[in-house]
Amino acid sequence: MAGGRAGPGQDERRVVGSDGGETANSYHVDSYSEEPAMRGYDVDGVTGPQEGKAKGSGGISELNRLVEALHGFDEGGLDHMDSYLGSDEEGLCGSGGMRGLASFNALGLDDMRDDVGLLDGGKRGKRGGYARSEAESYGYASEMNPKLKGKKVPLLEERCEEEFCAAPFNQDAAEAGTAEAAEPPTVWPQQPFRRGWRFNWPGVVLMALYCLAFIFYLYIRIRYTLDLGAYVWWGAFVLGVEILGATSTVLYGVNIILTPVHEPLVDDPANPGLTKVSNSYHVRVLVPCYKEDLEIVAKTIQAAYNARLPDNCSRTIYLCDDGKDKRKRKWCEQMGPEIIYVSGRTRASGEMNGKSANLNNSLGQIYPAGVRIPPTELACIFDADQVANPDFFLKTLPLFDAGDDVGMVLSPQCFHNIDAHADIFNHGNVQFWEYAQVGYDAIGFISCTGTNFLTRSCAFAAAGWSPTYTLTEDYALGMELKKRHWQCRYVNEYLAVGEAPEQVRNCFQQRSRWAKGHFQMILSNQHCPLFQRELPWWERVMYCTGVWSYLVGAVTTPVFIAVPLVTIWAGIFPIVVSWWAAVGLTTYFVAQYAVLNYVRQFKHVTPLWFANVANNILWWTFVKACWRAAGSMMADRGITFKTTMKGAGRLMNANIGDLWMPTICLLGLFASLGFGLFKVVTGPTVVTTLSISLVWLIYTAIPPYLLLHYHFVGRGQTLRWACRICFWISSLCGIAAIILLWLVYPKQYDYGQVLSYSHTFYDAERLGQVPANGSVPWRAPSLLYERGPARLGFGANLTGGWEAGGMAGTLKLTMPTAFTVAMLAWGLLEFPEGYARAGQMARAHDNLRWGADYLMKTISRPVAGGSRYQDFYIAYQVGNYTLERATWQRPEDMHTRRPVYYVATKNGTSDLVGQMVGALVSTALVFQETDAPYYDRLMTQALSLYGAGMRKRGKYSDVFLYDCAPQDPAAILVDPVTLACRPPDQQFQGSMVYWYNSTSYRDDLAWAASWMYKATGDQAYLADAYSYWTQHVNMEGDFDLRYLVDWDNIIYPTTVLLAQLTDDKAFHTGAQSYFQKWLCSSGNTISYTPLGRAYNRFNPALGQTMNAAMLAVIYGGAIAPQNATQLEVAPRYNDGSKSQKYICFARKQSRYMLGDKTGASYVVGFGPHFPQRPADRGASCPAQPENCTTVNGLYNPAPNPRVLTGALVMDPRTWDYFEDNRASNDTWVSVELNAGFTSVMAGMNQVTGTYDQCLQGYGILARDVNICG
Question: Residues with Cβ < 8 Å from 1069, sequence gap 6 or more?
Answer without folding.
Answer: none
